[in-house]
Specification:
By secondary structure, the protein is an all-alpha fold.
């Protein structure tokens, strides 16, 4: 095996590994978006509309990333042709691959930022829900005590 062939094998293995990592990231993002969708749908209508609009944006971004990933993966599937291409012009192929990888990573970082923002929003919503539950429970307790006191004074006279 020549040094060039070994380098080619290393590059191909790195690409496969990156594709697997990106696929796992896309799957995780899809799972998070599904969870956010379920949680957003259980909220009040005024909050739900805003969050569902954001989720549609996130789904659109994720679908764009998936289609870009599929396009890149299908280009990567014809391995024999790629081997010939890399043997004849390794530098050109590596620069194209680096550009594609760079664009995909930039898009993935954008999705990561959006997911982080969504996570913060959902955390805040969860805190508000919990606080509202405590407030409602306190109001119910106060009303029950007030009713009990009123009944006690009415019946004791």
């Amino acid at each position: 095996m020549s040094g060039r062939t070994v380098a080619l094998i290393l590059v191909l293995e790195q690409k496969r590994q990156k594709f697997s990592e990106i696929k796992a990231g896309l799957d995780d993002a899809e799972s998070l978006i599904r969870k956010m969708d379920l949680e957003a749908r259980s909220l009040q209508p005024n909050v739900k509309a805003v969050l569902l609009a954001k989720l549609r944006e996130y789904k659109s971004d994720l679908n764009n990333l998936k289609s870009e990933h599929k396009r890149l993966a299908s280009a990567n599937s014809n391995q024999a042709a790629r081997d010939d291409l890399l043997e004849s012009g390794m530098a050109d192929a590596m620069s194209v691959s680096a550009n594609q990888r760079g664009r995909l990573m930039i898009l993935l970082h954008g999705v990561d930022d959006n997911i982080s923002k969504s996570k913060k929003i959902l955390t805040n919503m969860s805190r508000r829900m919990s606080r509202n539950k405590w407030i409602i429970s306190s109001i119910i307790v106060v009303l029950v005590v007030a009713i009990a006191l009123i009944l006690y004074f009415k019946l004791s006279k």
